[in-house]
């Protein structure tokens, strides 16, 4: 049970101490890839203006537990649309009953910047399908590999990435 005496500052310090390191992971795309298996009821759609606030809300929710961070909606939207590595064809939104189920945002440098799945749908294959889809897209673009960084303490994400053939390249201090 959470300690009711713990303050917001205590929580922030705890999360900071948990987040002293991240891991750089890489997927070799020169090998054959398994087919993408989308869970029943999940459909893929491109990011559009209508979805921006809902995607941002999911990113905020996904990173609220100390596994990353996201700017305010306006700052995030501006940074996204004006980033030299942004390509709208590399932002994948999965929907379940027209609700945002997950998002994978990649950069043109074959780097997966964000992968977040709604908590209600975690463990149902959405994250793995998005990850596999990202791999396929970059393989089709002729990239030899895809990289990402994950917080060292984010064990569920690390298990997902390792299960999908990613290898730890190095541990980095933040």
Give a structural overview.
The protein is an alpha+beta fold and 174 residues long. The chain has a single domain (19-173), classed as 3-Layer(aba) Sandwich (Aminopeptidase), CATH 3.40.630.30. The protein is built from five helices and seven strands, in the order αββααβββαβαβ. The chain has helices spanning 8-18, 52-63, 73-82, 126-140, 155-163; strands at residues 21-28, 42-46, 91-96, 99-107, 111-117, 145-151, 167-173. Strands 2-3-4-5-6-1-7 form a seven-stranded mixed β-sheet, sandwiched between helices. The radius of gyration is 16 Å and the shape is globular. The two termini are 30 Å apart. Residues 1-17 have low confidence and may be disordered.
Beta fraction of the residues?
25-35%
CATH class: Alpha Beta
Q: Any low-confidence stretches, pLDDT <50, length ≥5?
A: 1-17
> Which word captures the global form?
globular
Major beta sheet summary = 7 strands, mixed
User: From the helix content, strand content and strand pairing, which structural class follows?
Assistant: alpha+beta
H and E order: HEEHHEEEHEHE
Name given to the CATH homologous superfamily: Gcn5-related N-acetyltransferase (GNAT)
SS field, number of helical segments: 5
Strand order of the largest sheet: 2-3-4-5-6-1-7
């Amino acid at each position: 049970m959470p300690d009711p005496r713990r303050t917001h500052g205590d929580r922030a310090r705890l999360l900071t101490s948990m987040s002293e390191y991240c891991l750089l992971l890489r997927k070799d795309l020169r090998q054959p890839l398994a087919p993408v298996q989308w869970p029943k009821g999940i459909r893929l759609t491109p990011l559009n203006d209508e979805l921006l606030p809902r995607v941002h809300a999911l990113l905020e929710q996904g990173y609220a537990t100390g596994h990353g961070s996201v700017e305010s909606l306006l700052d995030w939207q501006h940074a996204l649309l004006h980033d030299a590595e942004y390509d709208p064809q590399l932002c994948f939104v999965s929907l379940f009953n027209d609700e945002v189920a997950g998002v994978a945002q990649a950069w043109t440098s074959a780097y997966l910047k964000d992968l977040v799945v709604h908590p209600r749908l975690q463990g149902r294959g959405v994250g793995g399908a998005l990850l596999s889809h990202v791999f396929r897209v970059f393989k089709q673009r002729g990239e030899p590999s895809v990289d990402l960084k994950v917080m060292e303490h984010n064990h569920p994400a690390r298990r997902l990435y390792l299960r999908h053939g990613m290898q730890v390249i190095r541990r980095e201090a933040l």
